[in-house]
Design a protein that fits this description.
By secondary structure, this protein is mainly β. The protein is 3% helix and 42% strand.
Length: 626
């Protein structure tokens, strides 16, 4: 009703209705809802204007008589039952059905408003409870957002399931309460949640830092635990701001927590808690942003401010697959006994997480997001982009850091000695190369003195597929020809090479052809007498058997083959010359068929007489052919 006209007639006050369906009509005026309950309708369908609900100036409106309604339950805001059993229903018009003032809430804070809010829930008329932007509302008992499933004859209410109702206002304030803005305060009787089974809350200011509790412990919201969104709310209180059993798909966004022991606390030890999102929350003088009694999986913490706070920002038994991005940590902690900014209560269970752009400014903190001085043990496991490096680490301590000056591996005491590997893969087009392109030298250093070149995991295991070292030779002999020197182990694992040379046709200098001359590193063998199988010295170890037989020195190896060998033999005895050599087959027909042998018979003769003779010693250079 936008305007009122009062007319005295037979001690009865009437008003002219200027809104709703009955615009222009008149209605009796009663003081409040309790007065309406004392009213008897004069005509069927009579309209009555209620000046206010419970507190003068708030919650009144137009009600109309329902003569055919004999069973409707008095819900305290939408349907009122009189002492005579008549029923009056509120005409809502454009009013929000969830407006707490229309159900008897007291915006002065002098009396409790919990019953009024509970009446909205129990009415089932709306999915949204709306607090105005001004006033102070005292919640003197827990309001359950669970729907009513049954009402006993004595009025006892049974609740079951979830109503998925929204608590909404626009009364957010920095510290929870300003004189010209609304606040929701707990009464001293509240022991537990102010609101339980909450689905969503937006724009609410919870304020109660100085309440005397008489041993009672309260918190603002207890969530129903699934797909909850708490947005633009402020919590100024000494205990928990939000409590939830485990939970999943819960967003805490643009909220302010001040003085809370825990901004959010989950109970249920060992439970897997997943998919929480904390974004752009301001925390001041708070113990923990997230205190999880179970395992925290797949959750995100981004753009939060952790200012002058005392404890770890996040605490959980296990922290797994979570992200920490651009959080601001300023002051707080403990200078004498630094506090872990992210703390897993189960040892070394901070795993497979990622972090980037987190900032620390003063305070006493152990930065478990980006460990310094290579201290990884029981710290951050996952991918970290802080401190001008990329770190991939495990919670046990092993990790790899990509820094501006290179790549470095760190090993923990549990990992064992594992290589730092750079691998490529292949597809139908072949295997991918790995390129090192330096503007200066490429330096290979090994603390144990070894540089190992091994065959790749995907390579075919045969003698013709050993790694080849290509050394580019550009502009060969000042000609515009690019080619390479190929260096590769041979069958006996000695280096062999193909050295590029340029050939031209003297009749056509434009016809250039690169050929590769075979070259190989020889074995150098010194023999100074026969020895039993396997008893030779290193200098003769190419052959594991040496014997003198039939005027020849026989040397061979039963464990490896020699292909198309080239031999150069010199004696160390004056007057003795090398005569010739013969092969010893590796197996029947190996030499005639494949040019393969296992050893040689070496013949010597006296220089003067030409008679066969056995020298005291000789030296041999042996090269395997291509």
């Amino acid at each position: 009703m936008s305007a009122q006209q009062y007319t005295a007639s037979n001690a009865q006050v009437t008003v002219t209705i200027e809104e709703g369906e009955a615009r222009g009509a008149t209605a009796r005026l009663v003081k409040n809802i309790e007065a309406l309950r004392q009213t008897t309708p004069e005509t069927a369908g009579e309209r009555i204007w209620v000046e206010y609900h419970t507190v003068r100036g708030y919650g009144g409106g137009l009600f109309y008589h329902e003569p055919d309604n004999a069973t409707g339950r008095d819900d305290g805001g939408s349907l009122i039952v009189t002492e005579s059993g008549d029923r009056f229903r509120r005409e809502w018009g454009t009013k929000e059905k969830g407006d707490v003032l229309l159900w008897g809430a007291d915006p002065t804070g002098a009396t409790g408003s919990a019953d009024a809010v509970q009446r909205i829930v129990d009415s089932g008329l709306t999915g949204t409870i709306v607090f105005p932007n001004e006033g102070v509302f005292l919640i003197d008992r827990t309001v359950s957002m669970q729907p009513v499933s049954a009402v006993a004859s004595d009025g006892t209410v049974t609740r079951q399931g979830e109503a998925r109702m929204i608590l909404r206002s626009r009364m957010w304030s920095h510290f929870g309460y300003f004189r010209d803005r609304a606040a929701i305060k707990p009464g001293p009787e509240v022991d537990g949640a102010m609101f339980s089974h909450v689905y969503m809350a937006e724009g609410l200011a919870f304020f109660g830092p100085d309440e005397q509790r008489d041993g009672h412990v309260y918190h603002a919201l207890e969530l129903d635990g699934y797909v909850n969104k708490i947005t633009r709310c402020s919590f100024n209180m000494p205990n928990d701001g939000i409590l939830v059993w485990a939970g999943a798909n819960i967003d805490i966004v643009y909220c302010h927590f001040i003085g809370c022991q825990n901004a959010v606390r989950t109970h249920g030890e060992g439970e897997i808690v997943t998919t929480y999102t904390f974004t752009a929350n301001l925390c001041q003088y708070v113990g923990h942003l997230m205190n999880c009694a179970g395992q925290l999986w797949g959750s995100q913490f981004s753009n939060n401010t952790w200012e002058a706070c005392s404890g770890s920002m996040v605490v959980a038994q296990v922290i797994f697959n979570c992200g920490f991005v651009t959080n601001w940590i300023e002051g707080g902690g403990n200078e004498d006994d630094p506090v872990r900014i992210i703390d897993n209560t189960t040892y070394q269970q901070n795993r497979e997480n990622w972090a980037a752009g987190n900032n620390f400014h003063g305070g006493g903190w152990i930065n478990t997001l980006a460990p310094s001085d290579h201290k990884y043990d029981n710290r951050f496991g996952g991918v970290n982009l802080d401190t001008n490096k990329v770190i991939v680490s495990e919670a046990t301590g092993s990790g790899v850091a990509l820094r501006t000056d290179g790549l470095q591996q760190y090993l923990d005491d549990w990992k064992g000695r594992v290589e730092l590997a750079i691998n490529s893969t292949s597809n139908r087009n072949g295997g991918a190369d790995i390129g090192l392109n330096s503007s200066n030298a490429v330096n290979l250093r090994a603390s144990n003195g070894y540089i190992n070149i091994r065959q790749g995991d995907g390579a075919i295991s045969n003698e013709n597929n050993k790694p080849i070292l290509n050394y580019p030779v550009s502009k060969l002999r000042d000609q515009e020809v690019d080619t390479s020197l190929e260096l590769q182990p041979d069958r006996m694992n000695m280096f062999r090479a193909r050295v590029p040379v340029l050939n031209t046709d003297p009749d056509n200098s434009g016809q250039k052809k690169v050929r590769r001359v075979p070259s190989a590193m020889p074995f150098i063998i010194h023999w100074s007498g026969a020895y039993e199988a396997g008893q030779g010295e290193d200098e003769s170890a190419y052959f594991d058997v040496s014997e003198v037989k039939d005027n020849a020195i026989q040397v061979y190896n039963n464990h490896m083959e020699t292909r198309s060998p080239r031999l150069w033999v010199t004696t160390n005895d004056t007057g003795v010359d090398f005569d010739h050599w013969e092969v010893i087959d590796a197996y029947s027909g190996s030499w005639s068929s494949y040019g393969v042998c296992k050893g040689f018979r070496l013949y010597f003769h006296d220089r003067s007489t030409g008679e066969p003779v056995i020298p005291d010693s000789f030296d041999m250079m042996l090269v395997n052919s291509w």
